[in-house]
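Sanity check

After download, print the first record. It should look like this:
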Amino acid sequence: MDGYEATRRIRAMERQQTNTPSDAAMAALHTTKIIALTASASEDEHLSALTAGCNDFMPKPLQTDAILQKVSEHLSITYAYADTPTTLPPLVTLDSYKRRNVNLAAVLHADSLRTRPLDWLHQLYQATINLNAEHILELINAMPEEQALLAEALRVRVQEFDFEVILNLVQGAINASDLA
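Expected structure tokens:
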């Protein structure tokens, strides 16, 4: 079953649920909103989507702003955005370490996180297993200045999507604190 067939079935179920004119009026207000997302931008594809019962049509590649605009149009909603966007720290690369002759492996070792509070370690563990890079970076940014090099090394791991290294370090630190 493709998306257009699924749309036709949804519309058929909605029609079956409307037995009286008052039901039909109510159903018109509460129909499922369906926006076709397709790789084709042709007029034929657009017409096929509308004929199948889609409320609208969007060709790929999709842009986040365009999707939000369509959702806003069809659901009659407005979005409230934060006044200040979250900013990420500047990109750190392995090359920057090489230029400064810093050995990344020497910074990230089994004992590197053992001085961090257990609550912080658990938060970092949870953020890491959830692959929540933004929260991981927030936690890293809260590290004290004397651990700046470690924080920078961890940022590199996040920016290179190397969450396994972070997870292993955190697990080692948590296990060490459990033994203490």
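If your output differs, re-run the checksum step. Summary of this record's structure: The CA atoms of residues 64 and 70 lie 10 Å apart.
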